[in-house]
Amino acid sequence: MSMADLLGTGDVLAAMITPAVLISASGMLVLSTSNRLGRVVDRIRKLTELAEDLPDESASVEVVEKRSLIADQVGWLTLRLHLLQSALIIFYASIGLLVGSSLTVGLSAAAYGALSWVPITLALTGATGLMSGAVILLREARTAVKGTLNELKHIRKVVARKTTMRVVSIEKPEGGQGEG
Question: Can you give the pTM of this predicted structure?
Fold first, then answer.
């Protein structure tokens, strides 16, 4: 019994449209991943400006810590950039596979089921790609949080140092200055 005998025209069209739901989901993932990528690129540009504005030969604690923070953040952002690029490539490939699946459902029906394994294979591969891309985005999100926590650790150190410096300068003025 052929696929054309098993499926009527409506069934074939329904089977061709079914991957559209996954294609739509893929589009949303591409959009959100592209936005995340844009934010990473913006952050890299901001860090570039900060790094270029640092004095060349200063060894003050603040400058050394800022250089260290920038270098550390560049490492985190580089990893995120690569993860987001991988996720986008996988999502685009998945969209292509799902579109191919939709098209080959019609071709398989026209070939009386001779190619019925093709749309199934393309759909399964496309769906697996979506899952893989989502796993990569999970890793990227964890990396983003780790980088942010590291930056917060630096901010805490700066605030503690500056707060301590203010308290010290108020309690013990240098050279008797400020005593009334």
Answer: 0.75
